[in-house]
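README: folding subset

This subset contains proteins for which both the sequence and a predicted structure token string are available. Records are stored as plain text. Below is the entry for Formamidopyrimidine-DNA glycosylase (271 residues), shown exactly as it appears on disk.
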Amino acid sequence: MPELPEVEVCKLGISPHIINQKVDDVIVRFWQLRWPIPKEVLTIKGEVLQRVERRSKYLMLVFESGTLLIHLGMSGTIRVVNDGVAVVKHDHFDLAFTNGNILRLNDPRRFGAVLWLPEHKDIDGVLSKLGPEPLSEAFNADYLFACAKGRKTPIKNFLMSNPVVVGVGNIYANEALFLAGILPTSLAGSISKRRITILVDTIKAVLESAISQGGTTLKDFTQADGKPGYFAQSLNVYGRGGEPCLVCETELTEIRQSNRTTVYCKKCQKK
Ligand SMILES: [Zn+2]
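--- output ---
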């Protein structure tokens, strides 16, 4: 599943090829993704793409008359291809630009979404329920500590909750808690301000590190045979249950929390 760093890298990868370009055609080959694609998307033909932004895991393509939101869901990939590149299975949506570049969404499982915010208004409240961006200044120790006060939710589930902070997926929650030395099962409201401060710093660090590692894949966004949007990373705990801790060599413990895999070191991580 693409996580926040992949979506951020996707934004960086596609932007230079489509910004300030006029939409020549909007092609929808399959209208029913996670939600139906609204017919209004056809009206952006003739408009110039002003900029590409990201909010949580949504790519936001900003036009004069509104904003096109694209979410990659479980299996979506997006890339920029030349107009001669043949359409393949699951290429559900194209935005063709007058410079010959096409932004093409491929999504085998169809959990992705293409949505339209007319006049940039969040009519369905898709964006309004989201918490702060983890890499913004709004996400800081004062904020997270206040938010956690009295909460009896395990800290890992708490971090993965969108109203608290967006974009901290399972991989990054596991990794940040390991680096902060905090047990994933600790109750959010029981963690000291000092350790919350460390946690905020490690969340920002793991996401920034993933984005910079993903930077090496930028060229994949313009290769028709590339597999953009997913990149290999060096991880301390995620996917390593039963293997030795890279710090102390204790066997890493694997449990389930809210139906998601949690891996931690019972020696390095404390309540
Ligand atoms: Zn350890």
